[in-house]
Amino acid sequence: MSRSMEDPSARGVDDGSAAGGPGPADHAVALRITNLSKTFPGTQALDDVSLSVSPGTIHCLLGGNGSGKSTLIKILAGVYRADPGGRIRVRFHEIDADKTSPEWARGAGLHFVHQDLAIFTTMSVAENLALGRGFPTGPTGNIQWRALRRHARTVLDRFDVHVSPGRLVADLRPADRTMVAIARALQDQADASEGLLVLDEPTVSLPAVEVDILFEALRRYAEAGQTIVLVTHRLEEVTRIADRVTVLRDGRVVTTLDAGEVTKDRLVELIVGRALDHASSTTSATEGEDLALEVSDLWGGPLRGVSFGLRRGEVLGIAGLVGSGRTSLLTTIFGLQRPTSGSISLDGRAVRFHNVDDAMDAGLGFVPEDRSESAFLNMSLRENLSAAQVPKYWSGLRLHWRDEVADARRSITDFSIKAISERQPFATLSGGNQQKAIVARWLRRRPKLLLLDEPTQGVDVAARAEIYRLVRDAVAAGTSVIVVTADLEELARVSDRVVVLANGRITHELEGPNIDPSRVTELVLSATGDPTNPDMEVSQR
Ligand SMILES: Nc1ncnc2c1ncn2[C@@H]1O[C@H](COP(=O)(O)OP(=O)(O)OP(=O)(O)O)[C@@H](O)[C@H]1O
Ligand SMILES: [Mg+2]
């Protein structure tokens, strides 16, 4: 180490006065955590964690669901108090780990982008940026809109975000929304070359193209000296972007590695604690034309004449860019949206659901893209697991709670949900464990038709394989499945057949035991859904 941390000359460099920010010869530490522990009633979420992050690097924080990643981040943000005994140092700001607060985090130059982004879609980009720092007002307290837009323009330019300040956030692409959230988090930083940006699963439902845009931006910030801590479950991302990687398991640091030392398989082993078997979960598609679902010429919202059939016991993957109509297709089938024209038949009978109860009575299940739509955060895990089957546990006025408890315990085991007991409040489960519980809720019903929108978002690598194994069990028992996921590799692996949706139309169909993910990606990117060419191309039969 050429310069001691306490040396005041080092302080000058790290405060961003040097043009290029700290170089590789600078051994300063952007973040150092020592002996950090956090105990919740019944759970040790973090156990004596120590790690350090160098300035200007992208450091990935990995670990299975419930391994303690978000807890660590919330302690840094001052949302949770750590157990006594740990220390946290952010550049020259050092504090006892049980004393962090949001004010301390701000003062230390820490910035956070949480998984839900906390971005308001019904407001403009400029208004969202203002929410992070207050609206400029004139002498009478009136909001100065021109100043607001001017400030927004400057911030967006500084972070190279190519959207106009007046745009509604609802109209932005997901990557741009994430970028606006990052710009908002960083806007009050005097210099882009200091500070520490912490991102908790920012790519969770971003398609590959959008991830590329986000990663280019992160790389630029890091090159300018910004330090980035990134949580993700997508391991191929880690091998692409990380400078260093720290893996947590059950609240403890397993190891910290340089990027050059990691491969995807090695990461899986470190995260899970054993190697995963690569046995393909795909079974052969059901032959014949015994259709469980038939959709004909469906119009409504972004959908412009969608037709397809789903065989009994088939897993059909829908690939498409954001805005292609993927989610609308599922919500229209489930009766959450009314089609303007077209028909939907279940087992050969035309159906039109007026509400969710109708759809559920007919044997449909739906795991929506947005977990907040289906999670009852103030209820217990058990109640969340039985939410789709409430009548099952009642006869007359009696609640068969023993059955409900037994079923809940079985789901907890089957889906490896990390929880103290079935009574644990849902809000205190980790993100990935909440997601597993919601998938379990629907699979337990053995639905005739299961609609899955991004079912493995935030779910760790081992649990992902497990969820699809359980989906396959349901399929073997006769359930038919439609799955949407931005992860095209996953889509190709789990689907018997994949259709590509572009601009509200199905443009391609791929079938066979070897649906090739790169071919799917190519088709998704090239598909235009041009209405003048409605003939569907069927390839790789
Ligand atoms: N407020 C809380 N009360 C009780 N237990 C909690 C609370 N918050 C988190 N936990 C528990 O702490 C453990 C770690 O959770 P954490 O959210 O940090 O996991 P994670 O690594 O972020 O997982 P994921 O990848 O699923 O998001 C889990 O067992 C979780 O149930
Ligand atoms: Mg988390």
Description:
This protein has helices at residues 8-17, 69-76, 102-107, 125-131, 145-158, 174-186, 208-223, 235-241, 264-272, 326-333, 356-361, 381-386, 401-414, 431-443, 461-476, 488-494, 517-526, and strands at 31-40, 43-53, 58-63, 87-90, 93-96, 110-113, 196-200, 227-231, 244-249, 252-258, 291-300, 303-311, 315-319, 341-346, 349-351, 364-367, 394-395, 398-399, 449-453, 480-484, 497-502, 505-511, 537-539. It has a seven-stranded mixed β-sheet with strand order 16-19-20-13-21-22-23, with helices on both faces. A six-stranded mixed β-sheet has the order 6-7-8-3-9-10, with helices on both faces. The termini are far apart. The protein has three domains: 28-109 and 195-278, P-loop containing nucleotide triphosphate hydrolases (Rossmann fold); 117-188, no CATH class; 291-539, P-loop containing nucleotide triphosphate hydrolases (Rossmann fold). It contains 17 helices and 23 strands. Helix 4 packs across helix 5 and helix 14 packs parallel to helix 15 (461-476). Helices cover 31% and strands 24% of the residues. The chain is α/β, with parallel strands linked by helices and 541 residues long. Residues 69-70, 430-431 line the site of magnesium ion.
